[in-house]
Amino acid sequence: MSKSQDTPSIVVPDSNALFPKSPTKIASERFTNTWIECLKLGKLRLVLPEVVRGERLYRLVSTVRCSLENAAKNFETIAAVSASEMTPLPGIEMLRSAIEKRFDQWMESMGAEIIPVPCDKINWQRVVNDAIWRNSPFTQAGDDTDSEKGFRDCLIVETLDELIRSNVGSQVVFITKDRLLRDATIARFQPEALAAYEDLNAFLSYLKLTHEQVEKARKESVQVILQKAPSVFYSSDSPNCVYTKFAIGNRILQEFSSHLSAKPPSHIEGSQTEVETLMPASDEKIFIDSTQYEPVTRSKVTWGWKTRLRFARVFKKRRAPSSTPVSERTDLWRELVDALGVDDMVRIAPFDVFWTARCSQSGDFSELKIRDVKPQQQTWELGFNKFKYGFS
């Protein structure tokens, strides 16, 4: 297809690709329905050469002319038999105008464009030489006949040439059942500039296969990016990871100091501790949890992420003078109290860090940026839970 997924391929049907079974149709239903399916799988432009439009109009007008002649004979017979005056039939020019209008309405419904024959850019000397010597796309003369087929085909080829030269970067997809014409275009143009198919359904098969491959590659790329994101946020040996590069830990400690020093709620479930007497008994410990995708833009290369951090800190109850005589206290009792953390509470302060990066299909992250840091609701746990956070 095209060299870039953002550049539409230009689909050019020959008149035989449009021919319907019914002579009253502009184009076959199969072509129309297949085109609709093609549009779902890629960026495409439908372009008809002026020659193809003219050929279809000629066929339609010829059908009407034949029917008109038959109708005129029948009218004469009816008038003669009934001795009646018959209403005049419409003229062929009026009917031709109506057919052209109908054809152009079909073109508009298909989103199609017309490209004229580039008469002023054609090498007519070459065309004359090819016609004389029956060079492709002109048909070789047979043993019994001297066919002149090929002039309209030649004009189509010249139209394709101009279309390719005026749309650098796009691939032209030519649809024709005429093998001689198809081979002539394949021989003349480079494959990255033009691809030729026997019918539109063959091109649809190509689009489906390509779409499946692209979708598979996209899914694999997404998996690589998702798996790599956590280490991009934090890696102990990378000074360029998000956490280190933007000093996230220090930033939170400075910007949210009041939040981190806030008093706990008046009552903590499972504890009889008088919270007003809780005092910090450790430094903050920072835990980095999950990193997940957080969409922020429609850009295909910029991805949004959210990483959850937890700041854990031990708070200890300020001890009041004990009424138990010192002689009655034992070291074992004191060790038991300290070990169970009866007088301790652990405060957990979560923060969500929102950041963005440009992500390539190969999983490379670049242009790292911090969007926001938002504190979440704090929780308090009983003191014996301090061990699971690594507090001794």
Report a brief summary of the structure.
The chain contains 12 helices and 11 strands. The protein is α/β, with parallel strands linked by helices and 392 residues long.
Kindly describe this structure.
The longest helix has 34 residues, at 200-233. Helices cover 41% and strands 21% of the residues. Strands 6, 7, 8, 9, 10 and 11 form a six-stranded antiparallel sheet that branches. Helix 2 runs parallel beside helix 8 and helix 3 (50-82) crosses helix 4. It has 392 residues and is α/β, with parallel strands linked by helices.
List the helices and strands and how they pair.
Elements: E1 9-13, H1 15-18, H2 29-39, E2 44-49, H3 50-82, H4 92-110, E3 112-115, H5 124-132, H6 151-165, E4 172-175, H7 179-188, E5 194-197, H8 200-233, H9 242-245, H10 248-255, H11 257-260, E6 278-280, E7 285-293, E8 302-317, H12 331-340, E9 344-359, E10 365-375, E11 379-382
Parallel strand pairs: 1-2, 1-4, 2-3, 4-5
Antiparallel strand pairs: 6-8, 7-8, 8-9, 9-10, 9-11
Low-confidence stretches: none
Mean pLDDT: 82
Query: Quaternary status of these chains?
Result: single chain
Major sheet size, sense and barrel closure: 6 strands, antiparallel
Alpha-carbon Rg, integer: 40 Å
Any key phrases for this structure?
392 residues; alpha/beta; six-stranded antiparallel beta sheet; five-stranded parallel beta sheet; 12 helices; 11 strands
